[in-house]
Amino acid sequence: MSVNKCLSAQKLVVGQQAGSRVLSGGAFWLGRGPVGMDDTPDLRSLQSVMVKRENFKTCTQSGFCHRNRAYADTAASSSTWETPYNLDSSSIKFSNGQLTGTVLKTVSSTSEFVLLPLTITFLESGSARVTLDEKKRQTGEIELRHDSKAQKKRYDEAAKHVIVGDVSGSKGAALSRDTEDGSTRVHYGPAGAFEAIIKHSPFTVEFKRDGETHIVFNERGFLNMEHWRLEVKKEVKEGEEGENAAVAENVEDESTWWDEAFGGATDSKPKGPESVALDITFPGYEHVYGIPEHASSLSLKETRGGNGAYSDPYRLYNADVFEYELDNPMTLYGGIPLMQAHRKGSTVAVFWLNAAETWVDIVKSRSAVNKMSLGITGTTDTQTHWISESGILDVFVFLGPTPKDINQAYGELTGFTQMPQQFAIAYHQSRWNYVSGEDVMDVDRKFDKFKIPLDVMWLDIEYTHEKKYFTWDPLMFPDPKKMHDHVAARDRKMVVIIDPHIKNTDNYPIVEDLKSKDLATHNKDGKPYEGWCWPGSSHWVDCFNPKAIEWWKSLFKYDKFGYPNTYIWNDMNEPSVFNGPETTMPKDNLHHGNWEHRDVHNLNGLTFHNATYQALLSRAKGELKRPFVLTRAFFAGSQRTTAMWTGDNTAEWGHLAVSIPMVLNQGISGYPFAGADVGGFFGNPSKELQTRWYQAGAFYPFFRAHAHIDSRRREPYLAGEPYTGIMTQAIRLRYQLLPAWYTAFHEAATSGAPIVRPNFWAFPADEKGFDVDDQLYIGSTGLLAKPVVTEGAESVSIHLPDAEPYYDYFDYTTYRGPGSVTVPAPLDKIPLLMRGGHIIPRRDRPRRSSGLMKWDPFTLVVVLDSQGNAEGSLYLDDGESFEYQQGAYIHRRFSFDAQTKSLTSTDLASKGPKTAEWLKKMAGVRVEKVVVVNAPTEWREKESVRVSEEGAKESRRRREVGLSWHEGGSGKASWAVVRDPGVGIGKGWRIDFS
Ligand code: NOJ
């Protein structure tokens, strides 16, 4: 589509907003007939031409964001400013680790008090939780406008969807009062090392660890809870509408209190203004990370203008942003309101549990001197301002002190990522769309022909009959079972898309059910909400409704849809509504329990993908396979059930580059099973870009190629040599390292540690690496990848955080830090290093799918550090069922000891009822090779090593096996290979090199 055509389409949209012609955040349907005619949009005419920034609000266009920024500006600029929030000292109570009280907000115009019930809970885990509600809304003493049926309360159910950990108070927390400075102090946390100082007037809360202040609430006085009030109609003088009126009368700006228009839609706001905002300062911290999802750097930027800073806050309002821009704080498809602040020696974090539209401003204030006297060691403070449209204030505080502690505590609170099925971490092939069952089977065959490993074939929306989910296009997919069986022959799976919009049409039992059972999201008048998405007119299943979840589950039973190797992709669940405000639902829509969509928007996608997860769990009685669900929209807690990807990126180098910090950010934000469309969704990558993208994608936790319907076919075997061969090598490298990846997933599933880790996380004391976000460590394996993300590169510069030797993965070239080193990176080379001191488990036999590798032997790569030691681990289970929960797994620790010159395998597992059975099954799986990198020269003449193995037959218990030593030379480390030590992977053993 030419730009001119696009522009004329744009005019059409502006003129006929209600006519539903906007598709997916600014793509235009130039379909065959006028809207409203019984015609399905012609998706093939969708083009990726331009970003539609104007479809999305800036802070200035978002009433509550604008009001709170203005409030903050007044507070910050006036020397006489006093925050109107004071804690009523007489109201304070403390028991079982929880402080309760009432914060009084003084309303300046009437001098009346608004009562705001406060709780501060000091959790057993060492985290603290602060909530603030509004009495009048809580008790329903308010009136709603427009006869709205909405709940009167501020939304207080986010925790129900997000929190799985224990939030009861700690018995160990101890309160003391300080009458002199009018504050209450609570000591809590490990050995009482944490302290919260709650100042009454003005109300502030300061969090200390070991006497040092790390986090302060309301230090700048931006706390703002817009209390309920009656609408008073005012006479508006000409020229003094809106903001001008406020300026004229020197009162609050009411222009967006009662309704708010944007893009042709008006939000009726029956509850009036109800935003909640707070400033949170991290004294002495220069770097903050987190609050995904944004196409931006890992270390978050300042947002109030100036050199290199954004002018808008980071926004969290899950949305289908068409052709998103890079280096931008604009919202994207998902949001996690967790922010970590980091400096040498300390990491702390806050989790703002609010599911409404949220904006976060960041400002760094630098002072020449550090504030030692206040116990603050850094010279920069990061000041943040959190602004949500509605809901209660609910904030968790984590005092670290390490990034690992933060992820552990956050994971215990919101859940760890699940152990995935093995296939889910292998290679996925997708495009919009494989056009027929034959097409799918043909692609599957070609992967075999070209000897490229593949685990999953994906189907996008075109497999359905007229965009009706749970149906198959009868012409193009006449025999879905045959197709599924075909891919299953090599242990491959299918993932098919199921979206939350249900086509509003006749003779479609699913929509009839949805309506007759009243399971759809309602509009503000309580009728099933109708909007536009892929199928045209649609309704949306309301998964806040437990009955809708039960119904949804029933649709996935094998007798209704799918086969044992079918898994599910949930897309468009922000939700994306083509003709809705900002491409989503109106905020005054109503969900189950009459909660307004405004209150729960960012949770919407999570409730949907959780329902799908439940559905996959209950497809057949007794079938206990781990579900696989991919989601586009997400919130805190999504990590428990799903993988995510970064949505509709573009086949450009910049998009490849930004995928690295985006995936890293997901990891540190507790949602590590993440990836980006390999090759870029929109457009056609050059062969070089596509090849580099495969090399990068092999290091995403979720590794899937996907492409827009208008892009040219680009399965890796189509590129021709040398590209096909290089992409094949990248995919094979992923398969070779699957044991290391699976072990990294296990660490994430049990401790919350990211699967791919940024430098600051892996080396928290390396100050030079705090803003390094273009290289990634794979779990605790010591593997460090630096994907090439620029055109024509022949080398890359890698930041090494410490003085350990780092070895090239392929040829053992040795690099030493700390600092930057230059590593060759011609097209056929992935810059991948192994840090000295680690042992990496691999499986070296190329297979067609990961399922076929199940009984394959292992290789252990022992990478000696400067002292000659190394350590690593392996986690292994059946990669499919939940039997690991009953002990059906292997977890080994490998260590090479420089003193004894021996490599040992010891058990890290806890036994369960299924342990013995699993170990028996794995008895024949052995270590077939040990490679020692940086092998000592004295092994040069050595021809064998001694192997001893527990529980082996007498003849095998102690034996000699061959060793070969290889000279490195010209900057390369020497290495030694133990050929077929034959020790069991699940057994205890020792190999003596002395
Ligand atoms: C939008 C998704 O982001 C994209 O991956 C998918 O191909 C299209 N929807 C069509 O389903």
From TrEMBL:
Domain Glycoside hydrolase family 31 N-terminal: 117-361
Known pathway: Glycan metabolism; N-glycan metabolism
Domain DUF5110: 859-905
Pfam families tied to this protein: DUF5110, Gal_mutarotas_2, Glyco_hydro_31_2nd, Glyco_hydro_31_3rd
Domain of life where this protein originates: Eukaryota
Sequence ranges assigned to domain Glycosyl hydrolase family 31 C-terminal in this UniProt record: 752-840
Entry-linked InterPro entries: DUF5110 (IPR033403), Gal_mutarotase_sf_dom (IPR011013), GH (IPR017853), Glyco_hydro_31_AS (IPR030458), Glyco_hydro_31_C (IPR048395), Glyco_hydro_31_N_dom (IPR025887), Glyco_hydro_31_TIM (IPR000322), Glyco_hydro_b (IPR013780)
Protein localization: Endoplasmic reticulum
Molecular function GO terms recorded: glucan 1,3-alpha-glucosidase activity
EC numbers, comma separated: 3.2.1.20
Domain Glycoside hydrolase family 31 TIM barrel intervals: 418-744
Alphabetic keyword roster: Endoplasmic reticulum, Glycoprotein, Glycosidase, Hydrolase, Signal
Family: Belongs to the glycosyl hydrolase 31 family.
Protein's UniProt name: alpha-glucosidase
Gene name per UniProt: ROT2
